[in-house]
Each structure stands twice: as structure tokens, then as C-alpha cells.
Amino acid sequence: MQADESSLQKCLFFTSNRLSNVLRRIANDICSDTGIALPHIYLLIVVNQYKGITINELAQKLDIAPSTCTRFVNALVKDKILEKKQEWKTVHIYITKKGENTVKGIDECLNKFYNRCLEVMEKDEYNKLASLMWQTADKFDELK
Description:
Elements: H1 5-9, H2 12-31, H3 38-49, E1 53-54, H4 55-62, H5 66-78, E2 82-87, E3 90-95, H6 97-118, H7 123-142
Antiparallel strand pairs: 1-3, 2-3
Helix pairs in contact: 2-6, 3-6, 4-5
């Protein structure tokens, strides 16, 4: 195979990374007013949905290392957005009142992001692509 730019266009790894980088720039722009980093936004959404989640469960849902997850959680605890509660030997993560207000701002960002995407693609295309990407990630994850 001759490695040239057309090779990159046919490679799922490079095309998904390119799309991810473009979307990250858009999301950073849209979410900058929250003062929350994008990885922390993802984490907040999950903690808000699964109140009392453990670090290991959270790391698994975010597909990150538990040590990375702990670092993210500790930063948000320091900002009083999350709180940790020890129950026996297990630490559970909860969102605070300040965190709940932050999540409301995140909802607005997600809506703005979605609408920005709809400027480029049809709603049906967007939904199909998001669904296909999620399902494909699950399939590749099963290969581990």
C-alpha cells in the first residue's frame, strides 16, 4: 500500500481522530463559558445520572483508567462540584448543588453543540452516525 493522503481518508483510526479533533474544537468553543474541561463535562453527566457511582464504575463508563478518573473527580471535589462519601470500604461520588447548577449549563452547551452539528448535517444523518459510532466502539471493545 502506498501511504499518501488518500490512505488516511480510508483509515477509520485517522478519520475518526480527525472528526474528533474538529468536534473537540467546536465543543471547547461552545462549552468554554462553563469553566469546565470537556473530559470533566463527560464525567459530570455520568455522575449526575448515576448518583453514588464508584470510581471504578465511573472509569469503566468513561473508558478511562481509574487513576485518571480519580484525578478528574478530585479536581471537581476541590471545586465543590462533586463530593465523595465513604461507605464502608467504598467511595461513592455525588454531585453537589453547585454541580447541579453546572450540569444545567452543560445541558445548554450540548444543545448548542447539537444545533451547530445540524448546520452541517441532517438530523437523521447525525443520529445514525452517532449511533453507528457508539455501536462500533462497543464491538471493538468486545475484542479486548
